[in-house]
Amino acid sequence: MEEEMVSIEGGNGREIVIVGAGVGGLATALALHRKGFKDVTVYERSASLRVEGTAVGMYANGWRALDQLGVGNQLREKAILLQGTGEFRCLKRKDLVNALASALPPDTIKFGYNVVAMKMNHKTMSPGLQFDDGKVLQPEVLIGCDGSNSKVAEFLGLKPASLFNTLGAVRGLTNYPNGHSLRPTFVRMRRHKRDGTLIGRLPITDKLLYWFVVLSRLDGNFPYDPKLVKQATLEMIKGFPAEAVEMVEMSDLESLSFTHIRYRHPWEILVGKFQQGSVTILGDAMHLMPPFTGQGASFALEDAVILVRNLSNKISSLDQSEGGQQIMSHKNIAGAFEQYVKERRIRILQMSTQTYLIGVILDTKSFLAKLIAIIMLLILFRDQSKHTRYDCGKL
């Protein structure tokens, strides 16, 4: 990209740009909107809102963030309360995404914009984005919410996410027209203690069930076509209870998906660069972690609340001083983002370490490595529900 850049779509160079309209990007845009930021645009590479996917477990910490965003109560109507520690429900991802997007002003999201390159303009100290159609944008503030293959994270110098050698996950939804009569609780099943294959199920409503299968010892040839995913999954869960097998057999083909489990190493979280000037990241772009604790969406929601609170507080303190508008410079935006990263790093490190250790236990063939991971998990994370009691605070 050339050093000199021009804004597109009438941008004035002062706007806040968010890359990615997933849960994190939409939550950040909504948080900014609720705090009075007017010039906010979300650029999404897809042609429409990405509502595909299955469901997300939402613990009490996630609900606290949703309440700060103003969409908690309407989403509570979409999912039954599950038994466990604190408030715990399972939400269809489609319901979560639609609730966040619907609360935004019209035309906040622009679709069909795929970022292919980034470069800092050292004259203005503003980031530059180049899209795949050749258009270039130079906003005042850039927040990367563009997932595990984040171009913004790459710009900040973060390495691509890592893959566990043999771990993958299949997710699906199963509808029971006459009701499933299952207890409102999160159930995990194994064939035996040494088996790496794990089945989990969470009721969403009295008729809809979300389930996942964590598969180990994969050889890299697992299919992605939904029909083949179902066939392969049924083959790999032979020996599980009949109700679990039936759950997979009855699942909606359109909901089925398979992914290799990816993560960021804990030491990358500890030393990683999550901010440069007026550029920062959140959600999977920042802290992609295995799904074993069901905290991916909740952490992205927490990120959004805390990031926007820091930015808003910085602006509010400046507006009270003479010439506050001029003082709100690159330096002050950077200060707000630095505080956000500082506030998030330890919590993200703790959760990333916990999920990484669980992944090692499921993935490794080494008895010694497995034993070390189990011991560390028992020592460091005796309280398995501690992370759900976290409160991200007021927006």
TrEMBL record:
Residue intervals passing through the bilayer: 356-381
Alphabetized UniProt keyword annotations: Membrane, Monooxygenase, Oxidoreductase, Transmembrane, Transmembrane helix
Domain FAD-binding: 15-92, 101-315
Family annotation (InterPro entries): FAD-bd, FAD/NAD-bd_sf, MOase
SUPFAM superfamilies for the chain: FAD/NAD(P)-binding domain
Family: Belongs to the 3-hydroxybenzoate 6-hydroxylase family.
Alphabetized Pfam families for the sequence: FAD_binding_3
Full protein name: OLC1v1015802C1
A molecular function (GO) term: FAD binding
Keyword Transmembrane helix set for record: yes
